[in-house]
Amino acid sequence: MGYIIPLLVLIFIVFASVKTVAQGTVAVVTMFGKYRRIMLPGLNFKIPIIEAIHKRISIQNRSSDLEFQAITFDQANVYFKAMILYSVLGQNEETIKNVAFKFIDEKNFMQALVRTVEGTVRSFVATKKQVEILALRHEIVSEVKMHLDASLESWGFHLIDLQINDITFDKAIIESMAKVVASQNLKAAAENEGQALLITKTKQAEAEGNAIKIAAAAEREAQQLRGQGITLFREEAAKGISVAAKEMTDAGLDSSLILFQMWTEALKHVAENGKGNVIFLDGSPEGMDKTMKQMMAMEMPRRQKN
User: Fold this and answer.
1) At what angle do helices 171-250 and 256-273 cross, to 10 degrees?
2) How far apart are alpha carbons 131 and 7 in whole angstroms?
3) What pTM value is reported for the model?
4) CA nearest to 35, candidates 54, 19, 57
5) Residuewise pLDDT in 10s, the chain (306 residues)
6) Phi, psi of 234, deg, nearest 5
């Protein structure tokens, strides 16, 4: 029976000295309250009673949601909602010591992290106007990363990503911005409508001008053709009259009868196509004699010239 107690003590020492560290974590070992070494994932051994596990540190990625407020250069309140993604810088001993002993606990670390992000964003936003903020999302993230990386590395962490998910303003500012956007849209619509109307009117004027030009050219050509037709008609009529006058002269008749016949034919044409017009003619022998004398008087200069 005397060997049972030593056996139990041995079993206790064996079990107390064996420690398992889960994947994705690192255990910090202290001896009498002072840092001694780290335990990596897997099966590890420690000195019972003397060595103690001070803290288990996760080396996996961590995320945290942030909500904070900033004031722009023109005194507008801006509200941010962001997500920060970070992790332990590495598994080397110095990094794990920084993570384990820089802060009292996780709460104090998160407080310092959040305040650092807020301070950087507020310093950047304070130099910008409200109308610029929505377009500077990428610049804000770059500014935070540039200032935060150095601090996090000194604490043993690494910033993986910072996402600004929402940027909002006070209700009055949002309403005024909506009015500005609406007025700009109305202005753009009016300008587009004006441009469209101008183009339509211009094209219509060009079409009307081209139509007038085409009509004028056609009318000019028609007038030329009509003039040429009248000229040809007069030439042919003159030739016909000349031939008729020669034949009448050869037959021993007075060529003035041709003029009288043309005059009577003209009166007949006017009477047939006058559409109700009244023509008064002197049908007496004296009137006919007077008409013949007038026509002979018109014929005499032509004969004297020939």
Assistant:
1) 140
2) 78
3) 0.53
4) 54
5) 567 777 777 777 777 788 888 888 899 999 888 888 888 888 888 888 888 888 888 888 988 888 888 888 888 888 999 898 999 988 888 888 888 888 888 889 888 888 888 888 899 889 888 888 888 888 888 888 888 888 888 888 988 888 888 888 887 766 776 777 778 888 888 888 888 888 888 888 888 888 888 888 888 888 888 878 777 777 776 777 677 767 767 766 666 666 666 667 766 766 677 666 666 666 566 766 676 676 666 555 555 555
6) -65, -40
Identify whether the C-beta of residue 121 lies closer than 8 Å to the C-beta of residue 68: yes
Any idea where the domains of the chain sit in the sequence? 4-58, 62-169, 171-253, 254-306
The CATH fold of domain 62-169: Tetrahydropterin Synthase; Chain A (3.30.479)
* 88, 53 contact by CB (below 8 A): no
